[in-house]
Amino acid sequence: MGIATKNENGAARLRALLADPSLLVVPGCYDALSARVIEAAGFEAAFLGGFSVSAARLGLPDTGLLSYGEILDQARDVCGAVSIPVFGDGDTGYGNEINVQRTVAGYARAGLSCVMIEDQAWPKRCGHTPGKTTVDRREAVSRVRAAIDVREETGLDVLIMARTDAAATEGLDEALARAQAFAESGADITFVEALTSEEDMHRYCRTVPGAKVANMVEGGMTPWLSHEALADIGYSVAVYPVSLVLASLGAMEESLGELRRGVARPQSASFEHIQEVVGFPEYRERERRYGGDDQ
Fold first, then answer.
1. Residue 88 CB partners (closer than 8 Å, separation 6+)
2. Which of 86, 153, 219, 273 has the most CB atoms less than 10 A away?
3. Is the whole model's pTM more than 0.70, yes or no?
C-alpha cells in the first residue's frame, strides 16, 4: 500500500535491470494512479515524462511551461505510491549547471531512480514536435558533467540519462558526437531523440557505447518497432512516454460521449476495480488491525 512508502534502492534495482541483456520496457506515467497501474501490470520501471505531466497536471503543452517545483511535487507522489524504479524528466535542468545540480539532487531525494538531462535551449519542447533548438556541444556536455558531479559530491544513488535533440537541429553526426561525449563523461544511459529511420537507429547503437534508450511515441518521428527489433538493433531500454495519457484521453472522450448519448452505464473499469488499484482492501485491513470499523 502506498501510505508512508518510499521507493528505496530504486537506483540499485535499475542498474540490475540494465545489466540484463533483455530489453527493459518502460511505460510513461503522469501521476500516482497511472504509476500504480503500471506496477500492477507487471512492468519493472516507469517513466515520469514532462509531456504527460504537463498535459495531466496543467492541461498545457510540453513547451517549458511545467516548472521544476511542479514536476518535483508530482515525482514525490509517484515514488511514494510504487516500489518500482521511476525515471524522471529533468528537461534542461531548468537553468545553468548549478540549476542542473539542484534538479538532480532534488529529484533523487524525491525518490526518482534516474534523471534525464537534455541539451535543448529554453524553453524546451517535446522532442517530436517542431521548433526545437539546442545549445552548443560544450554546454550540453557541461550539463551532464554537472549532473555527474553532484551525484558524486552528495553520495546520492541516482542514474543519469543524457539526452540530445541535436539530430534534428545539427544533424546525426553531431548528435552521435554528443552522445559519445555524454557516455565518456559518465552518463549511465544515452538517448538520441527523434531518430527518423531504422538506419539511423542502427548507427546510433553501433557508434555509442553503454545503455541506450529508444523513445516510442505514437505518431512520432521515430519508426514504431517491436520489442524484438529494438533489442536486435542494440537498445537497452524502450520508453513509451505518452501511451497511457493517450489511452486515458481516448477513454475519457469515449465515456463522455456515451454520457451525452444517455448510455445507462458508460463502458469503463469497474468501481470495485479502482478500489483495488488504489488500495481500499489494504486500508480496511489496517483499520481492522487498529480496531476500526470495516464498513
1. 48, 71, 75, 107, 110, 112, 114, 115, 116
2. 86
3. yes
